[in-house]
Structures are given as C-alpha cells and as structure tokens.
Amino acid sequence: MQQHQRSTTTLLAAAALLAAGFPAFAQNWQPDKNVEIVINTAPGSGQDATGRLIQKILQDRKLVNTSITINNKPGGGGAIAYTYLQAHPADGHFVSIASKSLLTNHISGRMPLTYSHLTPLAILFDEYIAVAVKADSPIKSGRELLDRMKKDPGTYSFGVATGLGNPNHQGVAMALKDAGVDLRKTKTPVFQSGGNAITALLGGHVDAVPGSVGLMRKYVEAGSVRLIAIASPKRLTGIFANTPTWKEQGANAIVSNWRGLVGPPNLTAAQAAFWDNALRQLTQSEAWKKELEENNWDNEYRNSAETRKYMEADYADLKAFLTELELVKAK
For the structural domain made of 32-126+257-324, what CATH number should be given? Predict the structure, then answer.
C-alpha cells in the first residue's frame, strides 16, 4: 500500500512539472563547462572591446561560474563567426556579440545568416557613429568634407568596418546622400575591424573612418585622430562635447548601432532564461553603468523575447533604409 502511495505521489509530481511547461532539470540550466564569447571582428574593434568587457563583469560578479574565453573569428561580414555558432546548435555555452550588422549584412547580400538563423539573447546598449580623420588632416569639418565630395565623389576615401550598408557606413553615407553625393562613385574599402580601419587611417591609406564613439574614444584621448562629425540628434558629452553633429553641419543624418548577444540556433527556454538572468544582473552592475557613462552609450537592455521582436522590426526598417541608399542586393 505504501509503495502504491509513493508511486502515485511520484506520478502527480511528474504531472505537475509537465504542466509547468518543461521538466525540473531544465528550469535550472547553467553552464557546466567553458563558455565561449565569439567575436565576429578582429581584436581592437568595438565588438571585441564589448565582448571583453562582458567577459570581465560576468567573471568578476560570478554571474557565470565556469571559465569564459574570447574567440575572435573575423571575416565575411560576420559570416565566419555566425557559421561557427550555427555549428553548436542548442548549446548555451556559446554566445556571440552582435550588432545591426547582423541585419544589414544579410539585407545587403554580404552574409547568408541573420537573427532568424540564431537565438537572439539580448540588446545591451545603443551608440552613435562618429567620423574620424587623422589629427593633422586637412579636412577641417564635416561640412567641408560634404562640399568637396559633392563636387567630386572620389575626393576622399572612407575605411569601413566590416561591410557596406552597416551602421558604420551609414554614419557617413546618410550625410553624403543628404548632400546630394552619388554613393556609387565613392571609395569605401572594407576592413575586418574598426581597429584595422583606424590603422589604415593613421597610415594614410584612407582619408576618414566612420565608427562607433566607443571605438573612437581611446584614439581621441591619445590625440591621434580628430572627429569631424557625430551622427547623433544632439551633441554628446565628455571628450565628444566639442564635436558637432551632422545636423549642426547641415546634414540630416542620425545613425546609431545597438550591440547585444545572440546564441546558437534552438537554445532551450531554460538556457535563454539563464542568459536573461545573467545579463540583466550585468547591466545593473556599477562597472557596466560606468562604461555606459564614459562611452556615451544609451542603456537599451532587452531580454531574449524582447530582442527577437525588436530585431524583426529593425530588419524591416533597415531594409527600407538601405533600399533608399541603393545598398540592397537584388534577389
């Protein structure tokens, strides 16, 4: 009789767990081996810096109890990194830094993968795009650059990371288009990271580099580059306070880039819940808030469910925008 009662109790407990949506062991998933943060650009980029910051805070606050390593896989506008991620389906030990390039590189035909082929996990922050020239460049302002380019679209070259049509490119392309410049005649060599594009700028191989303000900060502080425009709705603060917006210089160009995380395809609800919890705590930490303030990043944290909806809407908006810029590949 007692054995029958125990069996009945066990069956009732199992039924309760099934009614909850998934088994008990799945509710408490957490990493039990090394976690890889995959970076789709080379070291020295804004993506790379974001990944290493996330790694440090997750470890310092013990939000992940296993080791965490960085794995840089640049190339193909992100295709190499995201293909690597796809090779680990349903494995929550792999995450990758993502930005709007995940959407724009697919829209422009540069990359076969986008958010729908992966598991969106979070959007963390937004940052605006600035345009840098060498500290001793003869280009004195964004307005001067636009006027010269209007006369001759081949006057200056722009080092873009990591693909045409992405937010970095948009940070200058939108202003050029607004000024009446034919974008098809501009020179825009593509680099595997923002750091590589800046190196080319400092070496005199390109005339200007559009990139995130987070990427630009250390070069501005070192005095090696000078910013001539920021694609923000109003002037930023701190070391960027003296740089005028495109709008101030007569160009209707406002461009920001979000950064976040994606995982391999088919992550379970429990795996997504783990990352929701860890990343929510990360964004609430003082170390994270300090970085937001210093880099002029806008706090835009969204959990995995919210991120999927946001990316879907953003994809549609970006496709319309890139069609206007004539950067959508015909299919």
Answer: 3.40.190.150
